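Researcher: Here's the sequence for the chain we discussed earlier.
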Amino acid sequence: MAILIGLSAIADKIKLPYPILLVGVGLVIGFVPVLPDLALNPEIVFLIFLPPLLYDAAFKTSWHEFKTAIRPISTLAITLVFFTTITVAIAAHYFIPGFNWPLSFVLGAIVSPPDAVAATGIIKGLGLNKKVVTILEGESLLNDASALIAYRYAVAAVTTGVFVFWKAGLEFLWVAGGGIIAGIIIGYLFITVHKKITHNSIVETSLTLLAPYIAYLSAEHIHVSGVLAVVCAGLMVTWRAPEIFSYQTRMRTRAVWDTVIFLLNGVVFILIGLQLPVILKEIKGYSFLELLGYGLLISLVTILVRIIWVFAGVYSNKIFPSNKMPLVPDENGQLQEKVPWKNVLIVAWTGTRGVVSLATALALPLTLNNGTAFPYRNIILFLAFVVIFITLVVQGLTLPLLIRLLKVDKTTTLHKEDKELDLMLVHQSVDFIENRFPVVLEPQVHEMIRKRYDAQIIKLNKELRQIERSGKHTKKVTSAPMLQLLLSQLEITKFQRELLIKFHKEGSFSDEAIRHAEQELDIEELRLNGLIEKNEK
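Model: Thanks. This is the structure I predict for it:
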């Protein structure tokens, strides 16, 4: 944690993606002779790290955008994972001595899923097209389940020597479908509990920390996908979050979760880097260069398979929906024909592996059912580490460069949408004040409120006209220490919150824009309640 906190101070200055910096530092620390070896227990990753990381990623995902992009997401998260597993298995079987088909499929299942945490950390702040970000984040949420199911069957084939295809297919449906149903049920239960709790933000925040573990452990207990259960529970709760959480809970939860995820992300990537020295000590009979060559081969196959699959999917109308080939969304979300390959290439190149691949490799059993050692276990661990490191460093470092070379401008759509949502709220609020306000206002108070919102309308219209030139204007807010004015403003804030819930349900604006407006209302409501309390005293 000391290293993590120290690195966070310099990460922005050196312009290096956070996951890459942490893995590199962990790798360096691992070779310091005076420090002890720190082996990572896979059960710790699956139980302690994975549920909250996936839950947080799901909680920040827009259900409307996820639902819209479900076809490309499922194509990448399910079909591509299995195709990568098969392709890597073929390469390992024919190019790595001693790897039979079951062992090759084990390696393929381990390195097939891109990592949610790594992907989010690398694409953050790059200003990518909203559709591209939705596809990448949605894929990384679901692909872990596909890869873990493939991994389970491949390991069973190695340890028992038996594999029945039709049984595996039925079990896949049970594991995946059961995980989804379990997540929906648990998400609904937590929504019900949150509705019953009022004016206790500490308890509600604590419940959000408990939810991913309940979802994961409950699903695993009945032998279905804990990963899918966590993701579905997170999507359920985030869908109802504007209704079930008070502004105090939202502000407290946001602060607590930001801190928790910062620590979990940082520690897990440092631990990934620390594993290489431990792995190398266990490998006998191979030179480092020979092993590195095998690792580079598997990494190359993994990267190329994704590129080929994504481009093939686009031109067969699988990844981006189109009426005539090829169309991709522009920064405004509209389908257009100009330079369609840019967004496609970004999706194809963003396939970084991370903590799930390492955890599944470390989770390989030490012995087979007959008591003999699991064959080539340490070689598989090393190859998985090389793939993680290569995809993180090569793809992670080159993605910003690729975006610059492609001359992909940072999208301004969200900023524009924020202003449009603010303007809609102000217009609706003026109508509410004039026609449906529940309190009879004194003329002076009414005039002050109306002037404030009229000024906001003028300002927002001006900002929208100048958004292309990135015009920035300071906001002048009229304030009055009168109790009636403060109560009136609080009433308007409540009305605006109901409007946001309505827009959220209708999908009129993106969840990110609604969250920004919601955050401003949270701060405004906190300020007004404080001033009202002071005036009443």
